[in-house]
Amino acid sequence: MCSSDLAVRGVVAVKAAPYRVTSGVVIGENLIAVADHTLRRKDNLPIELADGTQAVASILGRDRSIDIAILKAEGVRLNPLTAADPASLKSGSLAVVVGLTTDAGPSASVGIVGAAGGARRTWRSGTLDHFFRLDMNLYPSQSGAAVVDAHGRLIGMATPGLLRHAAVAVPPVTLNRVAQELLQEGRIRHGYLGVGLQPVTIPEHLRAKLGNIPESGLIVLSVASDSPAQQADLQLGDILISLDKNHLTSIDELQAILRGDIVGRSVSALLIRGGEPVEAQIVVSQRVKEN
């Protein structure tokens, strides 16, 4: 049996909008991952399995930073695919995208993994645990489809929404991480400091004086009133060097740190103030705007 025959068992068709059907990948007995950008409905999403079984799903939550929405299916038991070993995937590895529509049935596109690598941040400041760029064209209904290897094992969920000129496969470990946080917390948590920041180069004489610090940091341009930053006494002109022992050279790096279980914790921040190192403790709060 070929990989596409095996994979279609782990794919569903999703009525994502009144006139649009897209694909979704089964990641649990009642959980489905879809490409977030395809969803136009807010609840009661009709779904259909490859054997014609129909059901309804609701949106458990979404993480737009990696173009993922997780659906919870009602009244039907789903069969997730076995995940491929990320270490086995290299540039040139065979990849098959398997989607499903309600009218034409399964669809398949064959290509290769154009690039494979470790963790990668997206342009929306999300994090992919592994990076797999796909060298193939996707049909519109294949956004959210399963990407499988030659043995039908899941490489990830296909989406064209994270790169300008190519699709990527969001790996199973990332899909499951998002689903577990939604199940445990009911939302994707994003931390809030209450500061306006801008990258700045640290002068060489300061780096020589202070020792093991990076070439750049984030200068504080504003501090919101009654914010975690104000309560920790951060001041205009401070240069934020690290947070929770992670060096910071860009806003993207900071946004990647301010996710998940850092919310509610007291973390150490290393600053440069007046040419001298200063350490502060900041209790990271929950960003008000939810996904």
Your description of this structure?
- This protein is mainly beta and 291 residues long.
- The protein contains five helices and 22 strands.
- The strands form five sheets. It has a six-stranded antiparallel beta barrel. A six-stranded antiparallel beta barrel has the order 7-8-11-14-13-12.
- The radius of gyration is 22 Å and the shape is elongated.
- The mean pLDDT is 90.
Question: How confident overall, as mean pLDDT?
Answer: 90
Shape: elongated
Q: Mind describing the biggest β-sheet?
A: 6 strands, antiparallel, barrel
Instruction: Please write the string of helix (H) and strand (E) elements.
Output: HEEEEEEEEEEEEEEHEEHEHEEHEEE
Query: In terms of per-residue confidence, which ranges show pLDDT below 50 for 5 or more consecutive residues?
Result: none
> Helical region count?
5
Secondary-structure-based class equals mainly beta
Distance N to C terminus:
40 Å
Instruction: Give me the count of strands.
Output: 22
The share of residues in extended strands comes to 35-45%
Rg on CA atoms, Å:
22 Å
Major β-sheet strand ordering: 1-2-3-6-5-4
Helical amount: 10-25%
Q: Oligomerization state of this entry?
A: single chain
